[in-house]
Amino acid sequence: MKYNLFEKEAAPTWELAKEKLIKSKTTTRYNGEFETIFPYNYNEKNTFVYEGELTGPFRIEEDFTIYFYSDRECIELGYRFLGVGEKLVGDKIINVPSIGQYYEWKEEKWVYNISPHKIDLIAKIEKEKDEILSGGFLWNGKYQQRCRAEKDLPYIRETLENFELIPNYSLKWYFSNLPEGYSFNNKEEFLGLRNDGMIFIGDVFKIESELKLKINSARAIEDLAFSVEEEYNKGLVGFTLPK
Length: 243
Prior knowledge:
Oligomer: single chain
Shape: elongated
Number of domains: 3
């Protein structure tokens, strides 16, 4: 049990009531034997004891009882302020759970904010695009050709130039899943790889553009109810992607 020893004076505000608190002590129940709990401070004429937790703002009444303010009174007196997801119903503060991500607490209700939803989806589209290009596609359904703009595409262009410049040029091309390499003996076959790669890259960027347009024109949460990964997979249905 928690025992709180107060000066025996009324206090009409919480600020004054807190000043009247002499000390608090948690101990076993003593059935009103407060001299045992506060042997050097308790005096029935000048002090009184409140048994229990001081759970919130309070005042001391004229009859030396503790009055705890209701939630409404706490707000009216400036002792408490409503937080996010909180509203006053009657004299009690209740918590209203959030509906979900991208909802903001406004005027005592959760309101959907489409802007951060759009920002997150666009970032997800770009991340998915980069991962798809980095993983590439399976040429002829077997050989993994990555399509990184800073590495793979320039190398493909340089290799085509070698076919143009060097007579009887033969090439061993190292696909990501073929460490022993694949031999290209003519330009036409390698050109087929290049063309498939360009179509693949074009489709990836086309999907990115279409999804961003869809997002920018969205007006409601229902307009953004799609999976970025699934949209890319549908758009690249003509290609086999690595697992």
